Amino acid sequence: MLRKFAPALFAAMVSLPLSAAFGPSAFAQNAMGDPIRVRGAIVDFSGQVLKVKTREGETVDIALAPGWTVSSVARASVSDIKPGDYVGVASLPEKNGGDGALEVLIFPAALKGLGEGSYGWDLKPNSTMTNATVADAVKDVNGRSVTVSYHGKEKKIAIPDGTPVVTLAPATQADLKPDAVVFVQGQKAQDGAIAAQRIVVGSNGVIPPM
To answer: Signal sequence: where (predicted)?
Structure first.
């Protein structure tokens, strides 16, 4: 399924800024403020300001930086995950050891290597985001699992049935409609103002799971 999106995805993503590759290093060159992730539903969009009701119930204004861009997410499947793919996997520790995936994002090839590593994430308490290259994907008695490698390390992550698997897809400003679900990774200044350069918006019934 994923492969049929490849040409359009590449065209949509070649201008993607580093901030889209989830990771703390993505903000190292931006002194506007501390990194912040906003998840919620659009209340209003004025062209330069996106008003979002967050999952925490707060309504915030996000100033869109010059040259800002937007992408959507497209549904993929576990079978689309191939050795050599670059993925972002949010996961939680499992009771019996190891990690279990909360979601999987298959990055377009143009973004391979950006934000590489494994670090704390705020999708759920104690969650982790791992951006890494797929070493192998296997099926065993416990379901699907994927082994990924980053900076010379390896990590095996179980992918339970029902785990959202998506990739990035083209979008336009017209997709920023009231009630559309968004994921925004931006910067929060000391005065509380939030700015961002890229929006990921849900479309066609698929919402950003990250």
So the answer is: 1-20
